[in-house]
Amino acid sequence: MVNRIQQYSGGDLAAFTAFLAVTAHRSFRSAAAELNITPSAISHAIKALEQRLGARLFNRTTRSVSLTDAGERLAEKLRPAMASIEDALQSVDTEAGTPRGTVRINASEGAIRLVLKPVLARFLRQYPLVHLDIVSDGRLGDIVSDGFDAGIRLTEAVPQDMVAIAVTAPMRFAAVASPAYLQAHGRPLRPLDLHQHNCIRFRFESGAIYRWEFEHQGTTERVNVSGPITLTDQPLMVDAAVDGIGIAFVPEHLALEPLADGRLLRLLEDWCPEFPGLSLYYPGHRHVPPGLKALIGLLQEQHGGRGQPG
Length: 310
Fold this sequence. Notes:
The chain is α/β, with parallel strands linked by helices. It contains eleven helices and 14 strands. The protein has helices spanning 2-6, 11-25, 28-35, 39-53, 69-96, 109-116, 120-126, 179-185, 234-242, 256-260, 290-303, and strands at 58-60, 65-67, 101-107, 130-136, 150-154, 162-166, 173-177, 200-202, 212-216, 219-223, 229-231, 248-251, 265-267, 278-283. It has a five-stranded mixed β-sheet with strand order 4-3-5-14-6, with helices on one face. A three-stranded antiparallel β-sheet has the order 12-7-13. A hairpin with a 4-residue loop joins strand 1 and strand 2. The longest helix has 28 residues, at 69-96. The protein is elongated and about 70 Å long. The two termini are 35 Å apart.
């Protein structure tokens, strides 16, 4: 075992880092951007690692990069080992009191705009040694296996083995429509009436269509609506409702402006209760990177989140 380890030099640590970056991004160019080196340097590091191991790690074409079986096995073993090394280095950074390094965050586009966008410029000014790598992804993926430090999603959807830090106040959805649409089609009086209306549907990145969920005095109604249009962008759903295409069911904060100026009207208000908002979450068994801890502190200050990072 010792002899096997001794075959590797300190430069191989950089090669392993490059390998995991390419694995995470499935792109040599994106991995190079994350590590702030050239694509040719990434390619050279991977080629040298493959020669030393005597195995091809990636299948590469002009359009795609995928792991070979050997690459999959190496990635599976390297991730926890490299995470342990990173934890050790970050613990030293914590003692030094200077956040640095890359913080990778997975969140939906809406969460990025609502939670992260308001603090990005301020955070990067305060912590110039931290690089934020933010990936927009609406799927409920596994942030650990995908190589992220943290994710942002609805509090109720955070896995139970994660530490969750609230980064928004409680939220609610709103059913909305334009005055012109309501004049032509009338108002639904309860959620099941939506079956008689043109609704603007939402499709998750997984391909599933969202079933609208309502609650009133302990009664829950889920409606599989139909309508002339299905979208994957919630702000565009608001625009479609303003244009009179149909009824939209969206996070309330997205519709506040057209609601305030009368371009949209609320529907089924008694059936749209509050629910816990968004939380930033991360693995509870890991040391919290200083950069992530600094970001959590700024988000709590900005959004009034509760809870403390460990």
